[in-house]
Structures are given as C-alpha cells and as structure tokens.
Design a protein that fits this description.
This protein is mainly α. The protein has four helices and no strands.
C-alpha cells in the first residue's frame, strides 16, 4: 500500500474546515524560504504512517504517551551515533591531511 507523496503534502478539504479560505492548500502556497519548505516537505513525506518514522517524530510520539525512558533512550542512541560519526569524520580528515603532507 504505497502512499502518494502529493497526498501527504496536499490534504483534501473537509466540511469542518471553517477557515479553509485562509489556509494554504499546499506547501507551495506557504510564504517563506524555498529551502525550508523543501525540508518540511521531506520531513512530512519521510514519515509514512505505520511504516517509517523519522527520529524527531518517534521521540515526540514517546513523549506524548508519557514514555520518558523510551524517549530518552532514543535520544541517547542518536547522540552517541552522532558523536561516533563526528569522531570518524575527524579521524578520516586527520588521516587525509597526513597523507597529503607526505
């Protein structure tokens, strides 16, 4: 069951939308920086219901369900992964600099 990306960023109107004339119909109608809109589009499309979740949505879901330990665990794992990645990049950069100096 594939979800159409356009459906995620351009939802259909419902009769309950009293102020639908004021709301943008799609992300393209928002006023703002193009880069920020593209990032928001990726953020929304990257979270397919019941299939995938990006980390911020996963953490917020845990917090909304008062599962503070799980939210903290996810955040700590991401923090450790970030530090490991930064360390690897630093070591690679140092190795490359030494190689170029020879």
């Amino acid at each position: 069951m594939a979800t159409d990306p356009a459906r995620l960023t351009t939802p259909e109107r419902t009769p309950e939308d009293a102020d639908s004339a004021l709301r943008p119909k799609s992300l393209d109608e928002f006023i703002g920086q193009q880069g920020a809109r593209e990032n928001l589009r990726i953020f929304i499309a990257g979270n397919l219901p019941m299939k995938t979740q990006i980390t911020p949505v996963m953490i917020m879901g845990q917090l909304e369900q008062y599962r503070y330990a799980e939210a903290t665990a996810i955040a700590v794992v991401m923090l450790v992964a970030s530090f490991v990645l930064l360390l690897a990049i630093n070591l690679l950069q140092r190795w490359t600099t030494r190689r170029m100096a020879m």
